[in-house]
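Human: We require from you a protein record containing the residue sequence and its fold in token form, and nothing else.

Assistant:
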Amino acid sequence: MSQQSLRHPKTGQPINTAKLDQIVASARQASDERASGYREQALKLYPWVCGRCGRDFTRQNLRELTVHHKDMDHDNNPKDGSNWELLCLYCHDNEHQKFEEHLSAMKAGAGTGSATNQSATTTHKPFAALEGLLKSRSE
């Protein structure tokens, strides 16, 4: 499929891929510039050790040490580094996974109440008749 034939799935209007490519490139460049600024600051402020697993880093493997934003806001970059912690790639991924799971749990419980409230109101007992069935089979 050529780029000229790309159309918006809902409106059917042609998509200006050159403009879209320019927007994505600009956003990536801004993100890289912002990240390099606070990364360099964090590497100067903190020892090169993962804040979770304690793994030490050297210049050879420093690329595997990332800056984690404690409040998950990548635009919150105080000069004192109070919103940052250095984490290895694996621990950083784990932190974000835990945050995503937390958000999912909050969304799931938003309309129906918390899980503890749901279990208190449950009336279905799927194994209530099991004892009777087992007795009838053994006789």
